Amino acid sequence: MATKITYTQQGDYLLPDLKLPEQPKVEIGIWGKRHLQYIKQHHPIRYTNLLTTCKLTAYLVDIDEEATEMFDRLVKQIAEREGVTEQLKANNQMLWVARINNIRSRAMEIVNTELIFI
Description:
This is TnpV protein. With about 120 residues, the chain is mostly helical.
């Protein structure tokens, strides 16, 4: 079975109408979206290769899952190490919120440095 190729005229040239196969519809989280913007801007060849080989969606989903797991693990580990517990939350909510937000910010920086902006 032959594939029919269609063309569009652009000035004096006939250019083939190229179309990528449909990608599966998957929800990509914030980490995957951040990485997508980064590779589009800073690594256009990697982005184009992933896009044209239809591996971009799966790649971004993997990055998003790995980053989410790393972030959750880091927040838990740092909170345990620094004594930010449910007991502190019950005794002094404002202090707990301030410390957990600080921990989340540090964990976010680590994930960004090690997974997202590479």
